[in-house]
Amino acid sequence: MSVLRSALRPLARSAATRAYATAATSRVVNGFVGAVGNTPLIRLNKVSEETGANILAKAEFMSPGGSIKDRAALYLVKDAEERGQLRPGGTVVEGTAGNTGIGLAHVCRARGYNCVIYMPDTQSQEKIDLLRMLGADVRPVPAVAFDNEMNYNHQARRYAESLDNAVWTNQFDNVANRNAHILTTGPEIWEQTGGNLDAFVAATGTGGTLAGITRYLVEKSEGRVESYLADPPGSVLYNLVENGRLEREGTGSITEGIGQGRVTENLKPDLELLSGAVHVPDAESIKMIYRLLDEEGLYVGASSALNVWAATEIAKKKGPGSTVVTVIADGAARYQARLFSRVWLESKGLLNAIPENLHHYITL
Ligand code: PMP
């Protein structure tokens, strides 16, 4: 027996090692693109204990680009390739608050395309820096509403139209985004739970995540699995789902990448499948960021904390023994200069939302 094999033998035999061998580590995948998806479903122990339910979260921060938007980015690029809109050396142009851009920048490097990102100038510096490090041409523009021609999406579309061999991937209204979740995230959740889940809940930016997963789970379970929208202040969708009025609930939010002022093409086909909506105040989202860090050792972004709080509300509604699935869309590193800064928390009136015993995590 070789020295290496004999050295590895005791390890291979240990139960602990076997317990840590996961699907992700047991196979070789092909490059960045092959590593997208197949994320673990994490049981959130403390909130599960508290509600008597199983609260499970899809760990999208473990995707190679760091967020759930890697899946959409990959399917948007594949869609453009399949339609013949993108040939080798071409340019991908997108309007994005950050995570889709980061996913696209990775996919573009892996596939040999140029990447141009238009984004509202309200987004965190960490995301802008990362995009530039990934080789993207980042163009921050004033944050104006969608009906204004200077909105970042329209600027992205016009720029793509001015180039040859370029595509505006149009994450909000191109249903390749939603298809990524019908074809990957939904089936993964079904398989990981063995179909034993009662509800899914998630926030919406483009709507791709919520719509795609909802469509897959509701159809696969023949209507048994319920799906809910989790919505931050400032979005119109909570009222739309709950009482049919396209009306803002509250003003702005600290959560980045979610909340919506219109029904996107990605959300439209599946809106009718939703069983309801949960409005999540910023104070609950910020508190859950700190709780997940303290209780589970999970370092998650604000939209993910919002999702988990909404999942606890749905778990209370569905009752003890139920299983509720949600999504950890990304990690906190992209927002840490804000989320862990005392000055920033005070400026948002959120310092008091964080329990005293968790204040030692406020380190910036
Ligand atoms: N959370 C974060 C952090 C995001 O960046 C996004 C996408 N903007 C979402 C949630 C929402 O995902 P989707 O666009 O699929 O609705």
Can you tag this structure with a few keywords?
alpha/beta; 10 strands; 364 residues; binds 4'-deoxy-4'-aminopyridoxal-5'-phosphate
How does this structure look, described?
The chain is an alpha/beta fold. The chain contains 15 helices and ten strands. It has a six-stranded mixed beta sheet, with helices on both faces. It starts with a helix and ends in a 17-residue tail after the last helix. The chain binds 4'-deoxy-4'-aminopyridoxal-5'-phosphate. 4'-deoxy-4'-aminopyridoxal-5'-phosphate binds next to helix 10.
Query: What is the molecular shape?
Result: globular
Per DSSP E runs of 2 or more residues, the count of β-strands stands at 10
**What is the terminal separation in angstroms?**
54 Å
User: Biggest sheet: strands side by side, in what order?
Assistant: 1-2-10-7-8-9
Q: What is the radius of gyration computed over CA atoms, rounded to a whole number of angstroms?
A: 21 Å
Strand-and-helix sequence, N→C?
HHHEHEHEHEHEHEHEHEHEHHEHH
Query: If helices are DSSP runs of H or I spanning 4 or more residues, what is the number of helices?
Result: 15
> What is the mean pLDDT?
93
Poorly predicted runs: 1-23
